[in-house]
Protein 1
Amino acid sequence: MRFTSYFLLLGLLVGPLVGCNNTNRSNPQDGSPSADLPSFSLAWSEYPSWSVFGVADENGIIDKDEGKLGRVEEKWGVDIVLKEADYDTCLTFFGTSTVDAVCMTNMDSLAPSLGRNLVAILPTSTSDGADACIAVGVEDVDQLAGKTSYGLELSVSQYMFERNLEILGKDVSDFPFKNMDPGAAANAMQTGQEKIESIVVWNPFVLDTLRKRDGSKVVFDSTSIPEEIIDMVVVGKDSLNKEGGESFACAVIDAFFQVNRLLADQDHRDDTLVALGAKFSNLPLEDMETVVQQTRFYSSPKDALALFASDSFANEIMPKVVDFCVEHAIVESEPSIGFGDAEAQFNFDGTYIIKMQDRREADLKGGG
């Protein structure tokens, strides 16, 4: 789950998930061609499009352990070590160069880029209703004025809250926002805790609260700020410059889209959603169908590249995100942000998606 800001972070369709835990994995011994492959690490935390990497491990696409290879690692000639941890720990891993890559949001990528230049290689999803302001006894946003809303300060929750107020033409100062852990805020509303009339949370807390608290309703959510909250994979520029760095980036992207092809295949969709749900808050199939609607995946290279090439994302959305982080002192200074700019501290680069796609198309044409 996305808990705090940093400063406090095969090309072919594979078979069914069931019974595939150890299929087609290699366990190279010293002296074998695989034993000397460059090794890279990716930290991921519990969130729908990041849990894809846990499913990739279970399905033999990646083997999370060092020295063992899944299909995509064999294909690209790299050893990928997956490190699952809570969101804060993942950000710390990246900031201290403990890992080569990490799953985090566009907003939370700003602060670490000031100390370790990073490259966003892949957008994995965008919040499309997964982040919401939920209230009881409130019919519209005007009735929310003067009431305290509880959520995680200096996070995507507060960003979504203030951006919606801005869009609605409201004065943010009329709508108090107080820090509270999202799980605690959701539980307080669900149990009818006194004075908790408005919370700002994300899934699964949104789904749980609307289901468990009579009279609760969504006042507004992230559907009104399309593609402003982006979940991504970022890699340290230093790691990309290592031997095998480019192949590592391509392999991570390849694995992500392989699982997305399973989601797109009706023969495998349910099993894949169940597997994702097991990684994400143990949600059942029905809930996961809702989750992936509200956390919209960039399920194809075309979709992912379209975001990175979007003028509005580069020239309108990211400046808004940066302004929010500067105004709220989430970053000490504004990092340089680029799109295909290798000199930028925070660079969005679709090159690796294109290289992965070119390799896949070549393999398909060659029957590989």
Protein 2
Amino acid sequence: MSNRAKRWLWGAVIVAALLLVLKSIVPYGVYKVDTASMEPTILGTRQGGESVLVHYDRSAPARFDLVVALRAGEEVPVVKRVVGLPSERVQLVDGDLLVQGKRLGPEVPRPRPITVFDERWADPQAAFPITPENQPFWKLEQGTWTLAAPAGIGPRLASELAFRGDVKDSYFDAEQSIVEGEIPVNDLVLELDLAQDELGSRASLRLSEWGDIFELLLDLGQDGRLTASLVRRGEDSSAAPEVLGTAKLERNGAGFHRVRLSNIDNALCFERDGVRSLEVAYAENRYARADRLQTGHSILPRVAFGGAGGTLRFKGLVLARDLYYTPRGEFAVGEALPLDPDGYLLLGDNSAASRDGRDWGETRAEELIGRPVRIVWPLAHARPLEGAVPPPLLVR
């Protein structure tokens, strides 16, 4: 037997021993998940699926907690995420969750966004190609994009790189291979490292949804301070943008800083080095001109970054999406679902592949038997499971 095989065997023995000890002290068990309904949170379709450690706990869960439910008349428990709480009216509209007729605000804890592009695992030149129009100003060397964009560069498209294609309900598996989705999604997050050191320069990050363009502008003034602005634009490039919010920031040193722009549930948020400085809600999205049937499809380039007025450097690009709930099933889709005082709405993270509360309606509190806390098998995939993550505090 090879040393590697011995390590795996000993690892399995240790895990089994720990589970026996835990079961004798506190109520824990292990469930195997072998469906796609919770991917990528739980990778059930990999060979053999994944096994989760479950704490048998009947206390009331919070929104977005993971739970194990054994529904009346069913023999096999299911792992899902709680999205609707007792006595609420919940509905799924355009992929979003509405509670009491409203989307959740940016201050509400929610699941982490799901990565759909990460330059460590995917080809950045294929995702953000440097076109002939870009070539005089852009170069990609050793993982860093450099933009030399003097003031008056000319056409806007020359000074920005745009994401190629649509963004769908894709995700990365445990081996960092992309699992291609089929359903276009709305809510996106763009995160990158930005070095903006020349006074008078402007950096730009853009996200689009339907017929709207949402842009983060970072202007480095001659006084060395940054002005951050969140603006909303339409398809008419000659129209003045709608300024949704601004904030003054200290520069906090030269070199790279982590910048994050998110558009989730009709709310825009800007963070720099883990500190949230701007969050603004906006009215419903406008349809794209080409969307004549008003399906809500996003036709404009979904993501772009760039700038002008100096030399800017970008690296560490990550593009993520919010959970997207497909309009399938009988419950909480065409109209709001009123939950009973002991009722919960449970949904799968991989909505397009999940049989869940959209099919059977609410789940009773007495049917919730535990909380998944950790992936325990295979050992190479061992990791904690989490519910909602609090957002950074807003610091003005």
Protein 3
Amino acid sequence: MKHLGKLLITAVVVFVGPLSLGTALAATQDQQTESTSKTKPAGRGYPPYPDQDPNGDQDSTAPLQPDTRPLTGVQNPTLGSPELRHSYWVPGFEYSNIATSTALNQSTASGWNSTSFVAGEVSLLQTWSHSQLSVNYSGGGYFSTDTSQGNGYFHVFGLVQTFEWKRWQLMLLDDSFYLPEAAFGFGVGIDISVPGVGSGLSGGLPGTQNNYQPNQSIFTSLGTRYSNSFTTQAVYALSPRASIDVAGSYGILRFLKAGNIDSNDTIFNVGYNYALSSRDTIGVLYRFTAFRYPGNQEALNDHVVQAAYSHKITGRLAVQLFGGPEISTSRALVGSSVSGSGGATLTYASGSNNLSLIYTHRLSEGSGVQFGSSTDQVQTELDRELSRHWKGNLSFGYARNGSLGNSGVSQNSGTFNSYYIGGGLSRALGRDSKFSLAYATLIQTSNHAVCAAGTCSTSFTQHQIAAGFNWHTRPFVLR
């Protein structure tokens, strides 16, 4: 309880600090401008909750504004965003229970265990004349019958602060996780891994591209861990068709159990975008990433040059494609390595169906198991409205992490294949709550015995059955 109190105090500081900063900056900006325009920034953040009027009537038929995120920027594309008529905040509550068939270590006796997650949630959206602040937070405790996991607490936090001047856009973005297991595949089919009131912040895709998030796609990095990624991005419009964007990011991944590998990443990105039409854009980008491992002399530097293309139809389709050479160097290896890198994202909506997909091929920090990995990762999700009250979803994820052959890590120098597949059903219980059921299978294989955090196994399969309940108030209008 003593540690829980300290972490909750820290969470309050993290929440209130950026909120106060955003409020102060926006207030100063509004005092300085003489414009009476009330245009809201569109498509640059992720609204935490569908806009509602003070009487609680949701306007689901409001037309979407186009997504104006730069093609070569740090965020995934969206289908657009509704015009926001109000600033508001929404508190909520969530209870989830996940029953698992076996622990990750196959040498232990198999048997079902149960873990309950109890969380408070809050989402806030504050708009000014030329800026917008979005904050989403979920956090609480978990209680497990699995003695190897025990009891603890978890936190999921996201913040986006945007500013807009004539030709300039500035964005501050922060994502934080404190979880008892890998974020990849956590809470498949339910909303426990989504910060805030769980309204589908970005159509099934994470708000920030995988390139700017600490990778956690190897399941055998055991135990509680925390990660944080803070990004700043500036965009300047050279003309109505052309723009440049510059971004910097710093991320950390830390484990509480010995035997895992902590890491830091520092990223610099610059890109050029040119709109061929209202729907098609091309671009080129350069990205430098420095991976460092506290307490170890290993260091990786990565240089990427990519060509990019996007096609967007507001409310229907958003596609992005990236590809180009990648050059990496390592202190533990002689010379450098040249390979290819790339990625694709797809968001599609048709009637009652919503499909999202993201794929990346890149160098990553190693997911806490390796000193660097050549990583292929794909995640896809299909959501469908089955009736007025029922919704269904299907999810699939696959990650392949191959070692770079670094010296000193021979026991973890193989190839890891991690899969998850699952689906769920949810039913609305009135306007402000819902009940969810989900099933998922997590599978990992490797080409030799894997040793991480004191356990060894060549492969494992884990079945999960989850149930969840979400409740939130109606939005409290701020302005």
Protein 4
Amino acid sequence: MATKIHVVRSHSLGKEKAHQVALKIAERMKDKAQVNYRVQGDVIVIERSGVKGQLHIRETEVEVDIELGLMMRPMKGMIETKVTEYFDRYLASPK
């Protein structure tokens, strides 16, 4: 059974700006954690060995669901902290 991370954050950026911010978060994850991503409409799909997930972009919130494989389970706390930190930093105010 996979270990899951689920984070939801409200925002007042509007969908277009939230999409730009979500791409910035995905780029940061790519640089810092070698996570690959692809955009499918209002969803950013993230993947790397032992990690897969989706970042959903909506008008007033963003939501991420990540599944961690066996080898990544010990890193759950750190990954969840980083995702939350990115959301709080980038969704707090328009940049």
